[in-house]
Amino acid sequence: MKYNFPITRTTTPKAKPDPDTLRFGQLFTDHMFIMEYTTGKGWHDGKIVPYAPLQIEPAAAVFHYAQEMFEGLKAYKSKDGRVLLFRPDMNAKRTTSTNERMCIPHLDEELMVEAIKAVVNVDKDWIPEKKGTSLYIRPFIIADEPFLGVRPSDHYLFMVILSPVGPYYEGGLAPTKIFVEDDFVRATPGGTGFAKIGGNYAAGMKSQEKAHEKGYEQVLWLDGVERKYVEEIGTSNAFFKIHDEVITAPLSGTILPGITRDSVINLLKQWGIKVSERRLTIEEVFEAGKQGKLIEMFATGTAAVISPVGELSWKDEKVVINNGEIGELSQKLYDELYGLQIGEVEDTLGWTVQV
Ligand code: COI
Protein backbone atom coordinates (compact mmCIF):
# COMPACT_ATOMS: atom_id res chain seq x y z
CA MET A 1 0.00 0.00 0.00
CA LYS A 2 1.38 3.38 -1.05
CA TYR A 3 -0.19 5.26 1.84
CA ASN A 4 -0.15 4.09 5.40
CA PHE A 5 -2.26 6.29 7.63
CA PRO A 6 -1.85 5.54 11.36
CA ILE A 7 -5.13 4.72 13.11
CA THR A 8 -6.07 5.63 16.69
CA ARG A 9 -9.30 3.83 17.51
CA THR A 10 -11.95 5.30 19.76
CA THR A 11 -12.29 3.80 23.21
CA THR A 12 -15.92 4.96 23.43
CA PRO A 13 -17.72 3.72 20.29
CA LYS A 14 -21.20 5.19 19.78
CA ALA A 15 -24.39 3.20 19.25
CA LYS A 16 -25.32 2.81 15.57
CA PRO A 17 -28.52 4.63 14.57
CA ASP A 18 -31.85 3.05 13.68
CA PRO A 19 -31.87 2.97 9.84
CA ASP A 20 -35.63 3.66 9.81
CA THR A 21 -35.27 7.12 11.35
CA LEU A 22 -32.13 8.31 9.56
CA ARG A 23 -32.26 11.85 8.24
CA PHE A 24 -29.55 13.76 6.36
CA GLY A 25 -26.29 14.83 7.98
CA GLN A 26 -27.21 14.78 11.65
CA LEU A 27 -25.07 11.94 13.01
CA PHE A 28 -21.37 11.25 12.65
CA THR A 29 -19.37 8.04 12.91
CA ASP A 30 -16.64 7.11 15.41
CA HIS A 31 -13.60 8.21 13.36
CA MET A 32 -12.33 10.90 11.02
CA PHE A 33 -9.33 11.47 8.77
CA ILE A 34 -7.15 14.53 9.35
CA MET A 35 -4.02 15.80 7.58
CA GLU A 36 -2.12 19.07 7.79
CA TYR A 37 -0.56 21.34 5.21
CA THR A 38 2.32 23.62 6.10
CA THR A 39 3.96 25.93 3.57
CA GLY A 40 7.43 24.58 2.82
CA LYS A 41 6.50 21.10 3.95
CA GLY A 42 3.41 20.27 1.90
CA TRP A 43 0.61 17.93 3.04
CA HIS A 44 1.80 15.83 5.97
CA ASP A 45 0.84 13.61 8.90
CA GLY A 46 -2.37 12.11 7.51
CA LYS A 47 -4.02 9.94 10.16
CA ILE A 48 -7.29 8.46 11.35
CA VAL A 49 -8.40 9.49 14.82
CA PRO A 50 -11.60 9.37 16.91
CA TYR A 51 -14.26 11.85 15.72
CA ALA A 52 -13.96 14.81 18.09
CA PRO A 53 -14.16 18.64 18.25
CA LEU A 54 -11.18 20.55 16.84
CA GLN A 55 -8.98 22.94 18.72
CA ILE A 56 -8.71 25.93 16.44
CA GLU A 57 -7.77 29.57 17.04
CA PRO A 58 -10.51 32.20 16.72
CA ALA A 59 -8.13 34.05 14.38
CA ALA A 60 -8.01 31.09 11.95
CA ALA A 61 -8.28 32.45 8.40
CA VAL A 62 -11.31 30.33 7.47
CA PHE A 63 -13.51 32.16 9.99
CA HIS A 64 -12.79 35.55 8.47
CA TYR A 65 -12.32 35.24 4.72
CA ALA A 66 -13.82 31.79 4.10
CA GLN A 67 -10.81 30.14 2.47
CA GLU A 68 -12.19 26.61 2.42
CA MET A 69 -13.71 23.95 0.19
CA PHE A 70 -15.73 20.76 0.57
CA GLU A 71 -16.82 17.67 -1.33
CA GLY A 72 -19.57 15.08 -0.99
CA LEU A 73 -19.82 11.43 -1.98
CA LYS A 74 -21.39 8.28 -0.59
CA ALA A 75 -20.39 4.75 0.42
CA TYR A 76 -22.79 1.83 0.02
CA LYS A 77 -22.72 -1.80 1.08
CA SER A 78 -23.68 -4.31 -1.61
CA LYS A 79 -25.78 -7.38 -0.80
CA ASP A 80 -22.62 -9.53 -0.96
CA GLY A 81 -20.90 -7.31 1.60
CA ARG A 82 -18.65 -5.19 -0.66
CA VAL A 83 -18.13 -1.55 0.33
CA LEU A 84 -18.55 0.64 -2.77
CA LEU A 85 -17.77 4.27 -3.58
CA PHE A 86 -19.25 5.97 -6.64
CA ARG A 87 -16.75 7.76 -8.94
CA PRO A 88 -14.51 9.13 -6.13
CA ASP A 89 -11.92 10.15 -8.76
CA MET A 90 -14.41 12.80 -9.94
CA ASN A 91 -14.58 14.32 -6.44
CA ALA A 92 -10.79 14.41 -6.37
CA LYS A 93 -10.67 16.13 -9.79
CA ARG A 94 -13.24 18.70 -8.71
CA THR A 95 -11.20 19.31 -5.54
CA THR A 96 -8.24 20.17 -7.75
CA SER A 97 -10.21 22.79 -9.69
CA THR A 98 -11.84 24.23 -6.55
CA ASN A 99 -8.46 24.45 -4.78
CA GLU A 100 -6.93 26.19 -7.78
CA ARG A 101 -9.69 28.86 -7.71
CA MET A 102 -9.46 29.30 -3.92
CA CYS A 103 -5.62 29.43 -3.70
CA ILE A 104 -5.71 26.27 -1.58
CA PRO A 105 -2.63 24.08 -2.14
CA HIS A 106 -3.08 21.16 -4.53
CA LEU A 107 -4.03 17.90 -2.86
CA ASP A 108 -2.82 14.80 -4.68
CA GLU A 109 -5.94 13.17 -6.16
CA GLU A 110 -4.83 9.61 -5.46
CA LEU A 111 -3.96 10.51 -1.87
CA MET A 112 -7.41 12.04 -1.39
CA VAL A 113 -9.17 8.92 -2.65
CA GLU A 114 -6.94 6.66 -0.51
CA ALA A 115 -7.66 8.77 2.59
CA ILE A 116 -11.40 8.43 1.91
CA LYS A 117 -11.11 4.67 1.45
CA ALA A 118 -9.04 4.31 4.62
CA VAL A 119 -11.49 6.11 6.91
CA VAL A 120 -14.54 4.45 5.32
CA ASN A 121 -12.86 1.09 5.87
CA VAL A 122 -12.39 1.83 9.59
CA ASP A 123 -16.05 2.83 9.99
CA LYS A 124 -17.58 0.43 7.46
CA ASP A 125 -19.92 -1.02 10.09
CA TRP A 126 -21.64 2.37 10.05
CA ILE A 127 -22.83 2.00 6.44
CA PRO A 128 -26.62 1.60 6.70
CA GLU A 129 -28.10 -1.03 4.39
CA LYS A 130 -31.77 -0.06 4.20
CA LYS A 131 -32.93 1.07 0.72
CA GLY A 132 -32.31 4.77 0.19
CA THR A 133 -29.76 5.08 3.00
CA SER A 134 -25.96 5.37 2.68
CA LEU A 135 -22.85 6.64 4.41
CA TYR A 136 -22.36 10.24 3.28
CA ILE A 137 -18.68 11.20 3.07
CA ARG A 138 -17.71 14.82 3.58
CA PRO A 139 -14.09 15.65 2.70
CA PHE A 140 -13.17 19.31 3.31
CA ILE A 141 -10.24 21.69 3.63
CA ILE A 142 -10.04 24.74 5.89
CA ALA A 143 -7.38 27.46 6.18
CA ASP A 144 -6.47 27.44 9.87
CA GLU A 145 -3.48 29.78 10.10
CA PRO A 146 -4.27 32.40 12.76
CA PHE A 147 -3.93 35.79 11.04
CA LEU A 148 -6.23 38.59 9.93
CA GLY A 149 -4.58 39.72 6.69
CA VAL A 150 -6.16 38.87 3.36
CA ARG A 151 -3.83 36.38 1.66
CA PRO A 152 -3.76 32.61 1.22
CA SER A 153 -3.10 30.81 4.49
CA ASP A 154 0.19 29.05 5.25
CA HIS A 155 -1.53 26.24 7.11
CA TYR A 156 -4.56 24.05 6.27
CA LEU A 157 -6.39 21.00 7.52
CA PHE A 158 -7.82 18.38 5.17
CA MET A 159 -10.41 16.24 6.91
CA VAL A 160 -12.91 13.52 6.03
CA ILE A 161 -15.94 12.97 8.24
CA LEU A 162 -18.69 10.39 7.73
CA SER A 163 -22.42 10.55 8.32
CA PRO A 164 -24.98 7.73 8.00
CA VAL A 165 -27.85 9.31 6.06
CA GLY A 166 -31.39 8.86 4.83
CA PRO A 167 -32.86 10.87 1.92
CA TYR A 168 -31.81 14.54 1.58
CA TYR A 169 -35.41 15.65 1.11
CA GLU A 170 -37.74 14.39 3.79
CA GLY A 171 -40.22 13.27 1.17
CA GLY A 172 -37.60 11.01 -0.46
CA LEU A 173 -38.50 10.59 -4.14
CA ALA A 174 -41.73 12.59 -3.78
CA PRO A 175 -41.66 15.48 -6.29
CA THR A 176 -40.54 18.82 -4.86
CA LYS A 177 -41.94 22.30 -5.38
CA ILE A 178 -39.39 24.78 -6.70
CA PHE A 179 -39.38 28.56 -6.64
CA VAL A 180 -37.60 30.45 -9.46
CA GLU A 181 -35.40 33.17 -7.93
CA ASP A 182 -35.15 36.29 -10.07
CA ASP A 183 -34.06 38.75 -7.44
CA PHE A 184 -30.88 37.37 -5.84
CA VAL A 185 -28.25 35.59 -7.93
CA ARG A 186 -25.94 32.69 -7.07
CA ALA A 187 -23.04 33.16 -9.47
CA THR A 188 -21.68 35.39 -12.22
CA PRO A 189 -19.10 34.66 -14.95
CA GLY A 190 -15.59 34.83 -13.52
CA GLY A 191 -16.86 34.18 -10.00
CA THR A 192 -16.80 30.98 -7.97
CA GLY A 193 -20.00 29.27 -9.16
CA PHE A 194 -18.18 26.14 -10.39
CA ALA A 195 -16.22 25.70 -7.15
CA LYS A 196 -17.49 23.57 -4.28
CA ILE A 197 -17.17 26.12 -1.50
CA GLY A 198 -19.29 27.01 1.48
CA GLY A 199 -19.62 30.61 0.32
CA ASN A 200 -21.79 29.59 -2.64
CA TYR A 201 -24.21 27.88 -0.27
CA ALA A 202 -24.14 30.64 2.37
CA ALA A 203 -25.07 33.18 -0.31
CA GLY A 204 -28.03 31.01 -1.31
CA MET A 205 -29.61 30.68 2.12
CA LYS A 206 -31.57 33.94 1.91
CA SER A 207 -33.36 32.75 -1.23
CA GLN A 208 -33.92 29.32 0.25
CA GLU A 209 -35.54 30.96 3.27
CA LYS A 210 -37.73 33.04 0.97
CA ALA A 211 -38.74 29.90 -0.95
CA HIS A 212 -39.60 28.08 2.30
CA GLU A 213 -41.76 30.98 3.47
CA LYS A 214 -43.72 30.72 0.23
CA GLY A 215 -44.16 26.96 0.64
CA TYR A 216 -41.43 25.81 -1.76
CA GLU A 217 -38.62 23.39 -0.99
CA GLN A 218 -35.83 24.83 -3.13
CA VAL A 219 -34.78 27.60 -5.44
CA LEU A 220 -34.06 27.44 -9.16
CA TRP A 221 -31.30 29.93 -9.95
CA LEU A 222 -31.24 32.03 -13.10
CA ASP A 223 -28.01 33.31 -14.66
CA GLY A 224 -26.53 36.28 -12.81
CA VAL A 225 -26.21 38.62 -15.82
CA GLU A 226 -29.54 38.56 -17.67
CA ARG A 227 -31.62 36.57 -15.14
CA LYS A 228 -33.00 34.75 -18.07
CA TYR A 229 -31.32 31.36 -18.38
CA VAL A 230 -31.91 28.49 -15.94
CA GLU A 231 -28.77 27.41 -14.07
CA GLU A 232 -29.12 25.09 -11.07
CA ILE A 233 -31.36 24.19 -8.16
CA GLY A 234 -30.16 25.04 -4.60
CA THR A 235 -28.01 22.02 -3.84
CA SER A 236 -28.17 20.23 -7.18
CA ASN A 237 -28.10 20.47 -10.99
CA ALA A 238 -31.34 20.85 -12.95
CA PHE A 239 -32.65 18.81 -15.92
CA PHE A 240 -35.72 19.56 -18.06
CA LYS A 241 -37.37 17.11 -20.43
CA ILE A 242 -39.07 19.21 -23.08
CA HIS A 243 -40.81 17.13 -25.74
CA ASP A 244 -38.16 14.51 -26.58
CA GLU A 245 -35.06 16.50 -25.54
CA VAL A 246 -33.47 16.46 -22.07
CA ILE A 247 -31.76 19.78 -21.38
CA THR A 248 -29.36 20.92 -18.68
CA ALA A 249 -27.29 24.09 -18.35
CA PRO A 250 -23.78 23.95 -19.86
CA LEU A 251 -20.65 23.98 -17.67
CA SER A 252 -19.76 27.58 -18.40
CA GLY A 253 -18.19 28.40 -15.03
CA THR A 254 -21.29 29.48 -13.12
CA ILE A 255 -22.74 26.08 -12.23
CA LEU A 256 -21.39 23.21 -10.19
CA PRO A 257 -19.98 20.38 -12.35
CA GLY A 258 -22.06 17.73 -10.63
CA ILE A 259 -20.93 14.10 -10.66
CA THR A 260 -24.54 12.88 -10.73
CA ARG A 261 -25.13 15.40 -13.55
CA ASP A 262 -22.29 13.87 -15.54
CA SER A 263 -23.50 10.33 -14.79
CA VAL A 264 -27.05 11.18 -15.91
CA ILE A 265 -25.80 12.70 -19.19
CA ASN A 266 -23.76 9.53 -19.82
CA LEU A 267 -26.67 7.21 -19.06
CA LEU A 268 -29.08 9.19 -21.28
CA LYS A 269 -26.59 9.05 -24.17
CA GLN A 270 -26.16 5.31 -23.61
CA TRP A 271 -29.95 4.87 -23.76
CA GLY A 272 -30.16 6.84 -27.02
CA ILE A 273 -32.10 9.72 -25.45
CA LYS A 274 -31.40 13.18 -26.86
CA VAL A 275 -29.57 15.17 -24.17
CA SER A 276 -28.31 18.73 -24.63
CA GLU A 277 -26.04 20.86 -22.47
CA ARG A 278 -27.30 24.22 -23.62
CA ARG A 279 -28.66 27.52 -22.43
CA LEU A 280 -32.39 27.38 -21.79
CA THR A 281 -34.49 30.40 -20.90
CA ILE A 282 -37.04 30.32 -18.13
CA GLU A 283 -39.57 31.63 -20.69
CA GLU A 284 -38.95 28.54 -22.83
CA VAL A 285 -39.56 26.32 -19.78
CA PHE A 286 -42.88 28.04 -18.94
CA GLU A 287 -43.95 28.14 -22.57
CA ALA A 288 -43.30 24.39 -22.82
CA GLY A 289 -45.24 23.95 -19.57
CA LYS A 290 -48.26 25.81 -20.99
CA GLN A 291 -48.18 23.76 -24.18
CA GLY A 292 -47.95 20.47 -22.28
CA LYS A 293 -44.42 19.87 -23.60
CA LEU A 294 -42.60 20.09 -20.26
CA ILE A 295 -42.73 16.35 -19.70
CA GLU A 296 -40.45 16.09 -16.65
CA MET A 297 -38.05 18.06 -14.54
CA PHE A 298 -35.59 16.71 -11.97
CA ALA A 299 -32.65 17.75 -9.85
CA THR A 300 -29.46 15.71 -9.57
CA GLY A 301 -26.85 15.65 -6.81
CA THR A 302 -24.89 13.35 -4.56
CA ALA A 303 -27.11 14.13 -1.61
CA ALA A 304 -30.35 14.40 -3.60
CA VAL A 305 -29.54 11.58 -6.14
CA ILE A 306 -32.48 12.13 -8.56
CA SER A 307 -35.12 14.40 -7.17
CA PRO A 308 -38.22 14.92 -9.33
CA VAL A 309 -39.78 18.40 -9.49
CA GLY A 310 -43.58 18.52 -9.42
CA GLU A 311 -44.19 22.26 -9.49
CA LEU A 312 -42.35 25.37 -10.61
CA SER A 313 -43.27 28.91 -9.63
CA TRP A 314 -41.91 32.05 -11.36
CA LYS A 315 -43.21 35.57 -10.74
CA ASP A 316 -47.01 35.12 -10.78
CA GLU A 317 -46.95 31.98 -12.87
CA LYS A 318 -47.05 28.36 -11.85
CA VAL A 319 -46.59 25.19 -13.79
CA VAL A 320 -47.42 21.70 -12.52
CA ILE A 321 -45.16 19.06 -14.06
CA ASN A 322 -46.36 15.52 -14.81
CA ASN A 323 -49.39 16.05 -12.53
CA GLY A 324 -46.98 16.48 -9.61
CA GLU A 325 -45.95 12.83 -9.91
CA ILE A 326 -42.61 11.10 -10.45
CA GLY A 327 -41.86 10.93 -14.16
CA GLU A 328 -40.93 7.74 -15.95
CA LEU A 329 -37.44 8.97 -16.82
CA SER A 330 -36.70 10.27 -13.30
CA GLN A 331 -37.68 6.89 -11.85
CA LYS A 332 -35.62 4.99 -14.44
CA LEU A 333 -32.55 7.17 -13.78
CA TYR A 334 -32.93 6.78 -10.03
CA ASP A 335 -33.25 3.00 -10.30
CA GLU A 336 -30.24 2.71 -12.60
CA LEU A 337 -27.98 5.05 -10.61
CA TYR A 338 -28.91 3.69 -7.22
CA GLY A 339 -28.65 0.14 -8.60
CA LEU A 340 -25.13 0.89 -9.83
CA GLN A 341 -24.18 2.53 -6.55
CA ILE A 342 -25.25 -0.43 -4.44
CA GLY A 343 -23.74 -2.97 -6.84
CA GLU A 344 -27.06 -4.41 -8.07
CA VAL A 345 -26.73 -3.16 -11.66
CA GLU A 346 -23.71 -4.34 -13.64
CA ASP A 347 -21.10 -1.57 -13.78
CA THR A 348 -19.90 -1.55 -17.39
CA LEU A 349 -18.40 1.94 -17.06
CA GLY A 350 -16.09 1.28 -14.10
CA TRP A 351 -17.84 3.87 -11.94
CA THR A 352 -17.87 1.94 -8.69
CA VAL A 353 -14.72 1.59 -6.62
CA GLN A 354 -14.39 -1.07 -3.95
CA VAL A 355 -12.92 -0.02 -0.61
C1 COI B 1 -24.01 17.00 -2.19
O1 COI B 1 -24.95 16.74 -2.94
O2 COI B 1 -23.18 16.14 -1.85
C2 COI B 1 -23.79 18.34 -1.70
O3 COI B 1 -22.68 18.66 -1.42
C3 COI B 1 -24.91 19.23 -1.47
C4 COI B 1 -24.95 19.56 -0.03
C5 COI B 1 -25.32 20.95 0.14
C6 COI B 1 -25.78 18.61 0.74
From TrEMBL:
PROSITE patterns listed in its UniProt record: AA_TRANSFER_CLASS_4
Catalysis performed (reactions): L-isoleucine + 2-oxoglutarate = (S)-3-methyl-2-oxopentanoate + L-glutamate; L-leucine + 2-oxoglutarate = 4-methyl-2-oxopentanoate + L-glutamate; L-valine + 2-oxoglutarate = 3-methyl-2-oxobutanoate + L-glutamate
Residue numbers carrying N6-(pyridoxal phosphate)lysine: K196
Keywords, in A-Z order: Amino-acid biosynthesis, Aminotransferase, Branched-chain amino acid biosynthesis, Pyridoxal phosphate, Transferase
Entries under SUPFAM superfamilies matching the protein: D-aminoacid aminotransferase-like PLP-dependent enzymes
One Gene Ontology MF term: branched-chain-amino-acid transaminase activity
Keyword Lipid metabolism annotated: no
Alphabetical GO biological process terms: amino acid biosynthetic process; branched-chain amino acid biosynthetic process
Pfam families: Aminotran_4
EC number: 2.6.1.42
Cofactor: pyridoxal 5'-phosphate
Functional pathway: Amino-acid biosynthesis; L-isoleucine biosynthesis; L-isoleucine from 2-oxobutanoate: step 4/4; Amino-acid biosynthesis; L-valine biosynthesis; L-valine from pyruvate: step 4/4; Amino-acid biosynthesis; L-leucine biosynthesis; L-leucine from 3-methyl-2-oxobutanoate: step 4/4
NCBIfam families: ilvE_II, PRK13357.1
Listed PANTHER family: BRANCHED-CHAIN-AMINO-ACID AMINOTRANSFERASE, SUBGROUP IIII AMINOTRANSFERASE
Family, per entry: Belongs to the class-IV pyridoxal-phosphate-dependent aminotransferase family.
Stated name of the protein: Branched-chain-amino-acid aminotransferase
